[in-house]
Amino acid sequence: MKNYHTETLCVQAGYKPETGESRIPQICQSTTFFYGDTQNMADLFDLKAEGFFYSRLANPTVEALEKKIAALEGGAYALGCASGMSAILLTVMTVCEAGDNIVCASEIYGGSYNLFSVTLPKFGIECRFFNADSPADEISAHIDQKTKMVFAETIANPAIVVLDFDKIAEICKKHGVLFAVDNTLATPALCRPFALGADIIIHSTTKYMDGHAAALGGMIVDGGKFEFKNNKRYPAFNTPDESYHGLVYADLPVAFGTKCRAQMMRDTGAIMSPQNAFLTYLGSDTLALRMERTSRNAEKVAEYLSKHPKIEWVRYSSLPDNKYHALAKKYLPSGTGGMMSFGIRGTAKDCARFMEALRLITQETHVADVRSCVLHPASTTHRQLSDAQLREAGIAPNLIRLSVGIENVNDIVADLEKALSAV
């Protein structure tokens, strides 16, 4: 289906029924699978055959979603994970060991920042942060022989920084380092990072992919083109894995994806549940439609807020005076999604007063579904960061994160107008 457009892939990719079978994937709510042939079972465990034997590693319902998102991103292989955070963790664990490091943009989601800056160092994996706007030579200075991955977000949450793909891709190519991108807020409906030089794409499918705040999940998509073979930076891919009778992952067509599932998914069990995969599969049918609507709504909301006297600033790259406007036109020509942030003229207490006065728009620890919602990151998702780290992540005390939904935009603006009158 690689020649079909995104809108078609959203509703057709991932699953093809045979005659008399259900039109949409069934929920395979089973932990295990029957085999009458002993050798067939053994071949599955040795990765010599394809199939299902235990839902901790693979499941038919999850596979349907994996294939759909791989098709949408133009990737070779995908793994459905329990959450977006588990997808990031499994990606790191697949390439890193104690003593290794990753290089990461500081403007990322607070949970990801905490994983990289607090949790991973406890296991001997260092994270070196860079400002996304830094010149290439400053970013390259963080990379050494122990660097296994460069990580960034297509649209940073909640700093709303648009990634300069050409700059980061060139750095990674020069050093032979894996380039991993979290594409959650853009989705393949608006941006396809593999075409821009990325090697691995990560999603919190909990967000736009599901689109209805109903199903927790994550996804790792392997582009299948990174050269691990004889790459001295990645000895684990070129050394026989004795737990699979000497299998060398670099010899396989999809080295990263296979190693991630065979080792990390096997040992952590952080796979997506069949029920959540089913809900996300259904939700993703309308992804292209929803992303088009939410982008148009957000453009109008950003324009309104940018002219309001009680708003100090607005970060949304469709605005002509936004510092990332040119990058957005280059990498996100179809729209920049529904996420934005803005600053209330006042204090954190004024932010709280504003959010509590909203009626249509709800205050939630969530973004990127059909409903509009807001949050104050400095006191919630990024609460664990120090003042210095908050500045590095682009989180001001008066920053409010707004996820614009698909409601009528006039109703959204009216709700904002009424709540701003309370500040």
Task: Give an overview in words.
Helix content is 37%, strand content 13%. By secondary structure, it is α/β, with parallel strands linked by helices. The strands form two sheets. The protein has a seven-stranded mixed β-sheet with strand order 1-7-6-5-4-2-3, with helices on both faces. A five-stranded mixed β-sheet has the order 8-9-12-11-10. α5 (110-119) links the parallel β2 (101-105) and β3 (126-130). The chain is globular. The termini are far apart. The model has no long low-confidence stretch (mean pLDDT 95).
Features of the shown structure:
12 strands; globular; five-stranded mixed sheet; seven-stranded mixed sheet; alpha/beta; 423 residues; 37% helix
Spell the H/E element sequence: HHHEHEHEHEHEHEEHHHHEHEHEEHEH
Biggest β-sheet description: 7 strands, mixed
Strand order of the largest sheet: 1-7-6-5-4-2-3
Fraction of residues in helices? Answer: 25-40%
Strand content: 5-15%
Secondary-structure content class: alpha/beta
Number of helices: 16
Count of DSSP strands: 12
Quote the average pLDDT: 95
| Contiguous runs where pLDDT drops below 50 for at least 5 residues | none
**CA-to-CA gap between the ends?**
52 Å
Rg over CA atoms, rounded to whole Å, is 22 Å
State the shape. Answer: globular
